[in-house]
Amino acid sequence: MELLSLPGEILHLILVQAALCRGLKRTLRLRLVCKTFDKAIYYPALFESRLLDHEHLRRRHCRGPVYTCNTHDHGVAKLWHDYLVYRAMSERDTQVGRFVEIRQLGQTLVDEAQAQRPGPEWDLRHVVDVLCWSALESGTKAPGGPYENWKREEATDLGKLQGFPAPMPRLSLLAAAALFDMVPLATALLAEGHSPKHHNNLLPPAIQVAAQSGNISVLKLFLGHPSYGSGFDPYAVYGAAVRGDMEIMKLVFPAPNGIEGTNESGYGSINWRSDASKAIPKARRVTLSPEVYEYLSNAWAPGPRSGRTPWYADLVSHAGRGNVGMVKYLIDERGVPVDEKNSEELESALERACRCGQDEVVDLLLERGADPDFTGHALWGAVPIRMAASGGHMSIVRKLIDHGAGLEAHSGGGPGCGLGIDAIHWAFLLEHTEMVDLLLERGATIRAGASLATTVSHLGYESMLDIVRQHGFEADPATYGLPIRWIEWPENTRLKAEWFRRKREGEVM
């Protein structure tokens, strides 16, 4: 009997157990079976397995969030959003993450809204759906943020929550009111003493939500409230930059005396140690509007620092986000070089684009003359082809090879790459048979084969072990007991626990 011909309930149970046994990576690959399988069967089984709850625990030291605004993320944000909605609507244990808190916030919002202006749009699931998109802004600074990263004792506000006890549902409600443009509710919450500049690590601060949503009426309410004060607010500027709206940007960050193009803000000179000097670069790196970018650049124009120009750092950020228009603007209009050696940025623009799987940006950078073997940091060997291979980005690996990229290991290591790991080793570690075949066909060799064989044997990758054996290598656990030593590797935690279990039981020396 074919698997897909089984009754849906039985197939669902099989998939849930398969996911729990084989892990998230292999479960995600099941989406490729067919569209019907993806929509009707795959998501319910994946979500019920709860694997995504703990995924960030294996990857919490990765160098970027799963989701940020204005990022071409290949559907990652949609997956996390759908899962967050599922968990918020189904979870009943208040000690598990903050899923119940999201649903309770949505219910409070629905009750308040129905009392003010009844309508069909105030359906609980719809409200939770909208809230979850906003929650992703603050919740996924580490993958899986809707779970451990939101534990209340770890809640932070610009490094440390400013003396506020957690939880504070009314503070989160203020941000929700800003999201749904509910001025009367926001006014009442302000009267209770809640500040639009603070947050509880569930939703972004209310003032950011208002600026990012373009709800000018509630934004003006916040700007005119005594709790706002007269200082620069980084959250409001960030929200306006995400939206890319000059009207809102000038509202939250007015030019001094109505004159643009100076290094002064309406609040006096911007000190390089101030909140403004930290917030403006972040805002520049998230906006998709060249006009907003120029406005922010004119407000604060720092010089090079430690060999790094701020414009190149912006290029690297937009390259990783997949913002082709901004990458083109920075190179063609701003004159930012495609390759720039520096002492702070660990990646070049091409490396970042390769790591994040941004095909269009890779095409653009190579077209503009980017060196496929260039590494942005003198001490690291995070060359583009290894970054692309470590992310499983087959099309980018092929493009880099076609542009002359070297296939063997470069000196040093790289963020998320591991010391001395060739591109072909990453293909083995990802069980990417097609990439292994391509690299071997183009001339790559398997070095440190015994170590690689031991690693794939530990991981249970039988098909990969067969290929390594075909090239004359066998696993050698006595010599290579625990060959994976880099913390960024998602399987590291499970592998380490398994290895120590085997050592205790005398299976390895």
Automatic annotation (TrEMBL):
Stored SMART domains: ANK
Repeat ANK: residue ranges?
Answer: 345-377, 380-412, 419-451
One Pfam annotation reads Ank_2
Q: Which UniProt keywords apply?
A: ANK repeat, Repeat
PANTHER family annotated for this entry?
Answer: ANKYRIN REPEAT AND PROTEIN KINASE DOMAIN-CONTAINING PROTEIN, ANKYRIN REPEAT-CONTAINING PROTEIN-RELATED
What is the designated name of this protein?
Answer: Uncharacterized protein
